[in-house]
Design goal:
Elements: E1 2-8, E2 13-17, E3 22-27, E4 47-53, E5 60-66, E6 72-76, E7 84-89, E8 93-98, H1 107-119, E9 123-128, H2 136-152, E10 155-158, H3 167-174, E11 178-183, H4 189-196, E12 222-226, E13 230-234, H5 248-251, H6 256-259, H7 279-285, H8 291-301
Parallel strand pairs: 3-5, 8-9, 8-11, 9-10, 11-13
Antiparallel strand pairs: 1-2, 1-4, 2-3, 4-5, 6-7, 12-13
Amino acid sequence: MTGLVYKSTGSWYTVKTTEGLIYECRIKGKFRMSGIKSTNPIAVGDYVDFELDNTSDKVYGIIHHIHERKNYIVRKSVNLSKQTHIIASNIDLVFLMITINNPPTLPGFIDRFLVTAEAYGIEAVLLFNKCDTFDEAAADEQLYLQYVYSKIGYRCLKVSAIDGTNVSVLKEWMLDKVCMFSGHSGVGKSTLVNAIEPTLHLKTADISEAHQQGQHTTTFAEMYDLPFHSKIIDTPGIRGFGIFDIDNQHLSDYFPEFFRLKQQCKFNNCLHKDEPNCAVKEALDKDEIAWSRYKSYIQILEGDDSQYRKDTHDFE
């Protein structure tokens, strides 16, 4: 039997067949994906082959094969820096939810997420959530960030689950696609998903007043079918997002505005750091590239993950 993984708890997988039948499944033996050092060999969004085990009182499936993925998105695992945690696979669109405050989303976090999406071939869209709460300063900050990322080529959208701002536009973008929603704890992922499809009734929680951080609501990634021919993958909130397995020589390829200038640099192996006649540095001096983006690039290049790996227990 073949099915799609809708939920993973680490040991059990909820799999739905093309006929709409749902089975709880386990992995057969020491199942591992070749070439991927991952803490979770099977992820939400995977297509798998399984067979039913009728030897016990409860009928469940045994997964024995995973189909080739068209893409997947990963982050460093919590305690094992040389391994990855696959967040989800076979994604058409990933929506990174951003809040200006309550809690704040740092540009460095945004850039690291976008680099990962670029590296694994997933289209990323930036959603500026809670726009109904913006004061003048927050509105200015949001407009600036939208200008920076729109100029690079990323789609951006202001949204609000409270007053419904642009929810209809978001649903149009999601039509006939598998969409993943991600972002810091507390950015309002579950609340927005409930606004998109109220019948889902996803659990939500308030922001911690003491630390301006989200409470634990989504524990595991889970996929949901929507009535307008779309699928949503809701993910746990993440505070840290370390870059995995991208070498320095190719890092700038995943900054689209850097990649477009790469051929104009004097040296083919230019790292856009100290080399002479660097087109990226020249564009930076002319304010054609955002300094925040260049700062993120240098931090990743030099392996400075410290501020993005704190409190990564939020994502298991």
